[in-house]
């Protein structure tokens, strides 16, 4: 058996022995979710797990963790102690402000907060990979840096970790997302753009309050807000070519203080997701034009605050093909699937803007266990049999990268 095949078989053997721990970790983190920037207990538990494995780590960016696994292969380090190569693996750790309704025995114990996007799975898979890598240091020709990143859901965590040195001295980066649109166990690892540009907006509306029985005496900010929710979809249906992907989502609408008072102010917030740079650049002006005209028609004024989020996520071609090769070694050619990409956003794009790398989708969809609900749903659940595959793929990619 060739050395490469021996390495893959060893990954499989160790992974099989640690699968139960990976699932148990996932369930623990699922039951104890924490919001973006508040992942104090989550980070503490991660550190405790790393310490038990004898893996050195550093706490950064308040709730972020960077761990280091040093290879013991003969060529892992030069005479000055510099690694031959260094690969970074990343897992995000934050949860969402969602009230869970799955009814699972390990349902969130933090009411109104839920791991509804699979970040609990990412933590568990990464810890599983760390366990495997620690038992295979003799096959690590360099250094593995493991990034446990906070605040992905609010699009600032990767920048915080980069400022803290997460990419210093790194030659490549690899990430993964468990994904509800792909069949459990299938993996998408195509090159090129995979996720959208994601920006944020808020609209503050000023009308004039009045008694609810005298609507003609005021300007109803709630009515204006309702109109804007509908009007913003004109950007998608009439303002932009149907060949150009665009999604405008209003996620919050707030207005009014009492049921018998016509609201004098209101606000709404949302996201704009675009595929091309050209459309992204046009959006702030288009939103402002539409909002100003719509509010003015009701005698109100509206202020738009537009915030650039993360650029679209695009895989480096060489890194994507390396990921595909790693998948084939572990699971065979049939494990790879074609997936067109998504208008969802990911702040992993910030790493890819600085270091070559790849981000893959690991399918978790299984109708037989009701694992069919979209990311961010209060009913979101996953096929846990895929978790060990994620841990194996992190490991195989890291070893393959460092072996080149």
UniProtKB/TrEMBL annotation:
Its cofactor is Mn(2+). Transmembrane segments: none annotated. Pfam families: M20_dimer (PF07687), Peptidase_M20 (PF01546). Coiled coil: none annotated. One of its GO terms (molecular function) is metal ion binding. It comes from the Bacteria. Mn(2+) binds at residues 117, 119, 153, 177, 376. The keyword Manganese applies. The keyword Secreted does not apply. One of its GO terms (biological process) is diaminopimelate biosynthetic process. Keywords: Hydrolase, Manganese, Metal-binding. The Mn(2+) ion enhances activity. Residues 200-293 form the Peptidase M20 dimerisation domain. Gene3D superfamilies: 3.30.70.360, Zn peptidases. NCBIfam families: amidohydrolases (TIGR01891). This is Amidohydrolase.
């Amino acid at each position: 058996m060739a050395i490469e095949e021996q390495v893959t078989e060893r990954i499989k053997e160790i992974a099989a022995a640690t699968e139960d721990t990976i699932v148990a970790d996932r369930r623990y983190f699922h039951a104890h979710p924490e919001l973006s920037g508040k992942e104090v207990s989550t980070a503490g538990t991660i550190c405790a797990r790393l310490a038990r494995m004898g893996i050195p780590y550093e706490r950064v960016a308040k709730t972020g963790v960077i761990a280091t696994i040093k290879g013991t292969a003969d060529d892992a380090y030069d005479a000055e102690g510099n690694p031959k190569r260094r690969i970074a693996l990343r897992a995000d750790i934050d949860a969402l402000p969602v009230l869970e309704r799955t009814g699972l025995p390990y349902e969130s114990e933090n009411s109104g907060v839920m791991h509804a996007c699979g970040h609990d799975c990412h933590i568990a898979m990464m810890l599983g990979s760390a366990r495997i890598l620690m038992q295979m240091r003799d096959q690590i020709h360099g250094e593995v840096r493991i990034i446990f990143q906070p605040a992905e859901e609010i699009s600032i965590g990767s920048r915080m970790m980069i400022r803290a040195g997460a990419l210093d001295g790194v030659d490549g980066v690899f990430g993964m997302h468990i994904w509800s649109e792909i069949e459990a166990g299938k993996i998408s690892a195509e090159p090129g753009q995979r996720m959208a540009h994601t920006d944020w907006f808020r609209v503050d509306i000023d009308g004039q309050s009045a008694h609810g029985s005298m609507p003609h005496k005021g300007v109803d900010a709630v009515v204006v807000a309702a109109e804007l929710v509908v009007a913003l979809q004109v950007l998608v249906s009439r303002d932009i070519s149907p060949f150009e992907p665009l999604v405008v989502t209003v996620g919050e609408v707030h207005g009014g203080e009492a049921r018998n008072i016509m609201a004098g102010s209101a606000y709404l917030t949302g996201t704009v997701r675009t595929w091309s740079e050209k459309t992204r650049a046009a959006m702030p002006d288009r939103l402002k034009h539409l909002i100003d005209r719509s509010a003015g028609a009701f005698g109100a004024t509206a202020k738009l605050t537009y915030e650039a989020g993360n650029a679209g996520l695009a895989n480096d071609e060489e890194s994507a093909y390396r990921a595909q090769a790693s998948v084939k070694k572990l699971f065979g050619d049939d494990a790879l699937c074609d997936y067109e990409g998504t208008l969802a956003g990911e702040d992993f794009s910030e790493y890819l803007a600085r270091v070559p790398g790849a981000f893959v989708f690991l399918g978790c969809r299984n109708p037989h266990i009701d694992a069919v609900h979209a990311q961010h749903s209060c009913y979101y659940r996953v096929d846990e049999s895929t978790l060990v595959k994620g841990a194996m793929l992190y490991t195989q990619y890291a070893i393959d990268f460092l072996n080149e």
